[in-house]
């Protein structure tokens, strides 16, 4: 889930809103065995990434509330290796306690390199937390290449192909006016540089996926029109691609691509300003985006992971319960059968990773009341 630092204790609410009926049928449960749930205590899990069939990374933040009501985040990482017993173990992050930041997203590569991205320092003057995995450990540094005057910035997504090539996107604010400003960064193997996408001044950018150096997708929302944004980099130019328009609004939270003619994006849409937002799944076939009907009762979708043989796993939800769906070309949608939820210990999910038959989902538990949501503890679901 992507959440602003100002609303830390509503971890399960930002961007995860109830939806109206959409699709043709209720998803039936699909096979896969029972879920194993591992508590992460006061660590809210924001991102999971699969580094091959054995190793999985999970990142987020330890949430601590001060006596004055302020919230502090300490970036936190876990690692699970099926070849070494399959236990989730904390990963040392040297210098993490000096940052008031989350780990918002993780990217892993075939060459053994990896990246994560986070939030700007609490003083609003430094760079954004970024991490690089090298020489068997994580190195925490600050990305100071933000657009001039940017404050309270968060990099929400990172995607990479190799240690010398990575993209990251997110959101910041103009210091004087506090107007939102999109943030796009590119790592060239030596430093992070700010990149401007033409026409993006009023966009909020949520996710990036790099398929090749000349095939990069970025998704989010156009705040001026209220419609979703999907923009493509071909190695030379950025081009906005037309997504289905809705009478009121739509937003995309995640994108995942197998290649130039097989790209998926998820989020939510709304036809009237009084309608409860409906889950949204889009597919790009190399020429255009098509809306893929979802099962009735599906909530807003937050994350998508590619699975074998053209399949998908998607997760999302809201205060009423978490959503987990599987899709295959032959069968269509089916339920992932996530553990049950209740208002006293509701489950929220924000991220999903897949490798072969293995799935990992990151999230949290919270209580819901008239005064808002209260974070109870983080969780990792595996099967």
Short description, anyone?
The chain is mainly beta. Helices cover 0% and strands 56% of the residues.
Listing every helix as H and every strand as E from the N terminus to the C terminus, the arrangement reads: EEEEEEEEEEEEEEEEEEEEEEEEEEEEE
Computed Rg: 19 Å
N/C terminus separation: 21 Å
Uncertain spans, ≥5 residues at pLDDT below 50? 1-26
Q: Might you state the CATH topology name? A: Methylamine Dehydrogenase, Chain H
Helix content: under 10%
Tell me the name of the CATH class.
Answer: Mainly Beta
Structural overview:
This protein is mostly beta strands. The protein has one domain (about 5-380): Methylamine Dehydrogenase, Chain H (7 Propeller), CATH 2.130.10. The chain has strands spanning about 30, 35-40, 45-50, 55-65, 70-80, 90, 105-110, 115-120, 130-135, 135-145, 150-160, 165-175, 180-185, 190-195, 205-210, 215-220, 230-235, 240, 250-260, 260-270, 280-285, 290, 300-305, 310-320, 320-330, 330-335, 345-355, 360-370, 370-380.
Layout: helices, strands, pairs:
Elements: E1 28-29, E2 36-39, E3 43-51, E4 55-65, E5 71-81, E6 89-91, E7 105-108, E8 114-120, E9 128-134, E10 137-143, E11 150-162, E12 165-174, E13 180-187, E14 192-194, E15 203-212, E16 215-222, E17 228-233, E18 238-241, E19 249-259, E20 262-270, E21 278-284, E22 289-291, E23 301-306, E24 312-318, E25 321-328, E26 332-335, E27 346-355, E28 358-369, E29 372-382
Parallel strand pairs: 1-26
Antiparallel strand pairs: 2-29, 3-4, 4-5, 5-6, 7-8, 8-9, 9-10, 11-12, 12-13, 13-14, 15-16, 16-17, 17-18, 19-20, 20-21, 21-22, 23-24, 24-25, 25-26, 27-28, 28-29
């Amino acid at each position: 889930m992507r959440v602003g630092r100002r609303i830390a204790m509503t971890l399960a609410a930002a961007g995860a809103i109830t939806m109206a009926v959409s699709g043709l049928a209720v998803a039936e449960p699909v096979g896969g065995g029972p879920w194993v749930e591992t508590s992460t205590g006061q660590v809210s899990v924001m991102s999971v990434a699969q580094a091959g069939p054995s190793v999985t990374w999970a990142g987020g933040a330890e949430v601590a509330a001060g006596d004055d009501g302020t919230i502090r985040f300490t970036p936190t990482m876990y690692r699970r290796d099926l070849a070494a017993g399959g236990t989730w173990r904390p990963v040392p992050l040297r210098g993490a306690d000096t940052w008031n930041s989350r780990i918002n997203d993780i990217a892993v590569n075939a060459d053994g390199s990896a990246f994560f991205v986070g939030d700007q320092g609490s003083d609003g003057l430094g760079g954004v937390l970024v991490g690089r995995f090298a020489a068997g450990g994580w190195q925490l540094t600050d990305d100071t290449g933000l657009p001039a005057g940017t404050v309270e910035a968060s990099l929400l997504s990172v995607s990479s192909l190799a240690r010398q090539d990575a993209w990251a996107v997110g959101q910041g604010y103009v210091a004087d006016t506090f107007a939102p400003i999109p943030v796009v960064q590119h790592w060239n193997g030596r430093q992070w540089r700010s990149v401007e996408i033409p026409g993006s001044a009023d966009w909020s950018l949520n996710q990036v996926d790099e398929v090749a150096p000349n095939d990069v997708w970025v998704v989010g929302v156009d705040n001026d029109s209220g419609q979703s944004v999907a923009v493509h980099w071909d190695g030379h130019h950025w081009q906005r691609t037309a997504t289905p328009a809705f009478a009121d609004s739509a937003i995309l939270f995640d994108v995942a691509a197998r290649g130039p003619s097989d790209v998926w994006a998820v989020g939510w849409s709304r036809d009237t300003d009084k309608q409860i937002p409906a889950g949204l799944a889009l597919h790009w076939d190399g020429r255009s985006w098509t809306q893929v009907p979802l099962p009735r009762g599906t909530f807003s979708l937050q994350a998508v992971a590619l699975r074998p043989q053209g399949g998908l796993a998607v997760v999302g939800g809201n205060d009423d319960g978490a959503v987990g769906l599987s899709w295959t070309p032959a069968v269509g949608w089916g339920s992932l059968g996530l553990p049950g939820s209740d208002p006293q210990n509701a489950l929220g999910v924000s991220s999903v990773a897949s490798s072969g038959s293995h799935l990992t989902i990151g999230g949290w538990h919270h209580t819901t009341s008239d005064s808002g949501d209260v974070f109870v503890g983080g969780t990792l679901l595996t099967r």
